[in-house]
Specification:
The chain is an alpha/beta fold. The protein has 15 helices and 30 strands. Strands 1, 4, 5, 6, 7, 8, 9, 10 and 11 form a nine-stranded mixed sheet that branches. Helix 3 runs antiparallel to helix 5, helix 10 packs antiparallel against helix 11 and helix 10 crosses helix 15. The relative contact order is 0.12.
Length: 614
């Protein structure tokens, strides 16, 4: 085995607990070499990956990679939370016994790094100096150079984050082993893949993937599953799959902060990267803080809820990202950004990438283009070369780009503030064709938490390709839950109940359709700011809206419609409450909530109030 101590010393690791962690797993996995990574290694690793054919140039300082064709999405059924207490089992967290999981993972990983390098990636999932820093430290061990490059974009990487005298034992121990990825039995009864968060040990053990959240262990496994568990056990904070933006009024020089949960394909990334409509741009600007994870805490000094994006980058879905739908995202992956694209279409001759929705139509000339599986488009039958039929995609529906936050043109000037930002509003939104109005505000804490627990949306390719299937997704955390849902609801009530300045809650829906012809009733994208401005006006008492059993809905004239090009008739439709549909929905919610044993009384009381008043 290689010289572990020497490699760590050369890499600048001085924390003895990190040394012990790496030594233990080096003995298990038996790498030929060990390399400690810092952010300054990025250029060298890029060049090594190019020379090894692991990535390819995709224009000036942007890069293309392709994963194994069966390794393209989160695998929820192979993802588990493991602890030593069976009482930690919930409906959605796929709980397993920690000792059994650890034994299995060590068996699979034994000797798995023969002939390979173990990359040691010390990282921090918070701005340095954050009140939550002790829960944000981690070390990921990985055998995959592309994973390391993505971690450098998604987290703060360097030994300085773990060489600390402040509780040096406290860091997440994360082990990622790709394995013989083509021979792991994906999707069969003999599937060897397992992605495990041993939450009560603050250890993450992932085997059998090199894709995104299965491999970037600082992101979902630490930033959501482990952090959510840590927040619950400590009683200090919430870790949620939320976006976070600041809305700055240039006239009053005041910035308000909105965060919220949106399941996949419900508009979260586009909202996080939103710009103000042209007609409102002279007065308002939107600052980007994050598009995927927010940690929330109550500051004991001022009693406000503070939110912080623990990530350092964006891992966005490429599909339908274009200069109209999300110009901010397109700017963040521009030439020179060092962005890394995965599973999009690629033309090596032109060093160019493409995905469905990037342009209105496919490239006219298919010569030299490879699809996401690495096959030439020109080798397909003519009728399948530029076809929108399912199965003819050039780019995988879950194709991604990875880019650093510093590339986002409207990134907030204070996104590195260790305190975070004070939250004015918490919103939830799912893709729903009817029933849900454009926005309904909720001023009661228990009803706001109840609304988040009963959030519903469609599944997407990010969740194993079951596109179009409707399901409930509490707070958009269903795939990331780490402890029982009833405790989760109680923890929300406890944390936010400490706040003397309560955020306003709201439910938004950008996707309502006309019953007759199916057109969208709301233009969405930049116009979504209008709904959020109304919500903040409501919080400040400048508007009153119209009370309904499910929340306060705007009057049409309360919305700032300067330059609005939508239909007033459509506006009136999406600001109404269909009581018949809501009665059916409440019956479904009751059945759904009955899955969760010992839900707090406040949640059931909120449910009953709405049922009685609808």
């Amino acid at each position: 085995m290689c010289d572990v101590q020497g490699a760590l010393r050369a890499g600048g690791v001085t924390n003895p607990y990190v040394v012990g962690f790496v030594r233990e797993w080096a003995e298990i996995t038996q790498p030929d070499a060990i390399e400690v990574i810092s952010a300054s290694d990025d250029e060298r690793l890029i060049q090594e990956a190019l020379e090894a054919g692991e990535i390819f140039p995709a224009g000036k300082e942007t890069y293309y990679s392709r994963s194994y064709y069966k390794d393209t999405a989160r695998s929820e059924e192979r993802t588990v939370v493991a602890t030593h207490r069976e009482s930690d089992q919930g409906v959605f967290n796929n709980w397993h016994n920690a000792d059994e999981v650890d034994e299995r993972q060590r068996s699979h990983m034994h000797g798995a790094l023969h002939g390979k390098t173990m990359y040691v990636v010390p990282y921090l999932m918070a701005p340095p100096g954050s009140a939550l820093e002790v829960w944000a430290r981690g070390v990921e061990l990985s055998d995959n150079r592309i994973v390391v490059l993505q971690m450098i974009r998604m987290a703060r990487v360097g030994v300085e984050y773990v060489n600390t005298d402040n509780q040096p034992r406290e860091f997440v121990r994360a082990i990622h082993v790709t394995g013989d990825i083509e021979n792991l039995g994906q999707g069969t009864a003999d599937d060897q893949r397992l992605f495990a968060t041993l939450a009560d040990e603050r250890t993450i053990e992932h085997f059998g993937s090199a894709y995104g959240g299965n491999a970037l262990l600082g992101k979902i496994a630490h930033g959501l599953r482990q952090a959510s568990y840590d927040g619950w056990v400590s009683g200090k904070f919430l870790a949620e799959q939320f976006m976070l933006i600041g809305i700055h009024d240039k006239v009053t020089d005041r910035t308000r902060y909105v965060c919220g949960g949106f399941p996949s394909a419900s508009g979260k990334t586009n909202l996080a990267m939103m710009l103000a409509p042209d007609a409102l741009g002279d007065r308002y600007e939107v600052f980007f803080y994050g598009d995927d994870i927010v940690w929330l805490r109550v500051d004991p000094d001022d009693g406000r809820v503070y939110g912080m994006n623990p990530e350092y980058g964006a891992f966005g879905v490429a599909k339908d990202t274009n200069w109209k739908s999300n110009p901010t995202a397109m700017e963040s992956i521009r030439p020179g950004s060092r962005a890394l694209f995965t599973n999009v279409a690629y033309n090596p001759d032109r060093q160019e990438v493409w995905w469905e929705g990037k342009t209105p139509d496919y490239p006219e000339d298919v010569t030299g283009w490879y699809d996401w599986t690495g096959k030439l488009i020109s080798d397909r039958p003519k009728e399948e070369q530029r076809s929108s039929q399912k199965g003819c995609e050039w780019s995988h529906p879950n194709a991604r780009f990875t880019t650093s936050l510093r590339n986002v043109p409207n990134v907030a000037p204070d996104y590195e503030d260790p305190k975070g930002v004070p939250i004015d509003a918490i919103i939830f939104g799912g893709r729903v064709a009817n029933r849900e109005p454009l926005i309904r505000a909720i001023t009661d804490l228990a009803e706001g938490v109840y609304d988040g627990l009963t959030l519903g949306a469609q599944a997407t390719f990010a969740a194993e390709g079951k596109e179009g299937v409707l399901r409930y997704d509490p707070m958009s955390m269903r795939p990331f839950m780490s402890y029982p849902e009833s405790d989760y609801a109680a923890h929300w009530l406890k944390i936010l109940g400490k706040a003397t300045h309560q955020p306003v809650f709201a439910h938004v829906n950008w996707f309502a359709r006309d019953d007759e012809d199916g057109h969208f009733l709301w233009p969405g994208y930049r116009d979504n700011l209008r709904a959020l401005l109304w919500l903040l006006d409501l919080k400040d008492g400048r508007v009153t809206g119209r009370s309904t059993p499910v929340g306060i809905v705007p009057e049409v004239d309360e919305l700032n419609l300067d330059g609005f090009e939508g239909s007033r008739a459509d506006l009136e439709k999406i600001l109404t409450i269909d009581r018949e549909l809501w009665v059916k929905e409440l019956d479904n919610r009751e059945e759904y909530l009955n899955q969760f044993h010992d839900l707090p009384d406040e949640i059931w009381e909120a449910h009953r109030r709405i049922c009685q008043n609808i």
